[in-house]
Amino acid sequence: MEMLQIAGTVPEDRLPVQEIFGPVPQGEGPYTGRRACFIRLGRCNLHCPPCDSKRTWDTSRYDLAQTCPPRTAEDIVEAAGEHGAGAGIVVISGGEPLLWQRTTAWHRMLTALPGDVHVETNGTISPNEFTTGRIAHFSVSPKIGRMGAADPAKRRIRPAVLADFAVLAGQGKAAFKFVTADAADVEEAARLVRDHQIPHDRVWIMPLGDESAAWTAAGRDIVAQVMDHGFNFSGRLHLTLGVR
Ligand code: SF4
């Protein structure tokens, strides 16, 4: 199993942490503006060319032992507390954080973190029973178009996993976030939503762009199309504010 192979590179009682930061406003999706502490875990099972978190997985550029040193759950929770956990949401991001959900360190971290904990995932791994029970919100971002250009579709798009998250979306526990570069990407997102019975009102379309001017321009081009499909639109507030 891919998940266990990746997990085996880090001691069972630790998680690889690229960064813990906050408090900052959540910059994307339905919780935009919410006070948040972010925990960014290392490793990913995809290789998206526009990824803004390559320090979590790109071994061609980074020594992951340096960029994502293993830390105990207790250390992570203490650091999160120093960065706003307990007075806002905690967002576990990556990388792909669900790669770690079978480890004791994941269990201990989720048990000890205070308040509402969110997970940002690429939608290729279903949450297990413990994770589903503990996590208040899943932000699910399947990779399409330019984002998904480096990985074959069967690796990026896993129908059984999307079905699980579609159920959670219907229960209000998950939202889908598609990063799109252009109108063709929006149409690809719409096909996925239709094919996997994802509730339209739980879909956010977010323009690609790592600077405020770039995502704003891309957003102007697609916003009417997004509304026509019955989806929501997400900006990238953190880039506009320069907080991350
Ligand atoms: S799934 Fe997310 S973290 Fe992984 S490569 Fe793609 S954008 Fe980066």
Automatic annotation (TrEMBL):
Which keywords has UniProt assigned to this entry? 4Fe-4S, Iron, Iron-sulfur, Lyase, Magnesium, Metal-binding, Queuosine biosynthesis, S-adenosyl-L-methionine
E.C. code: 4.3.99.3
Q: Which residues bind [4Fe-4S] cluster?
A: C44, C48, C51
Residues that bind substrate, according to the entry? P25, Q26, G27, R40, S93
Q: Which cofactor does it need?
A: [4Fe-4S] cluster; S-adenosyl-L-methionine; Mg(2+)
Gene3D superfamilies named in the record: Aldolase class I
Q: Which reaction does it catalyse?
A: 6-carboxy-5,6,7,8-tetrahydropterin + H(+) = 7-carboxy-7-carbaguanine + NH4(+)
Radical SAM core domain residues are: 31-244
PANTHER family named in the record: 7-CARBOXY-7-DEAZAGUANINE SYNTHASE (PTHR42836:SF1)
Describe the protein's quaternary organization and the partners it interacts with.
Answer: Homodimer.
What's the name of the protein?
7-carboxy-7-deazaguanine synthase
Name the source organism.
Streptomyces tremellae
- Gene behind this chain? queE
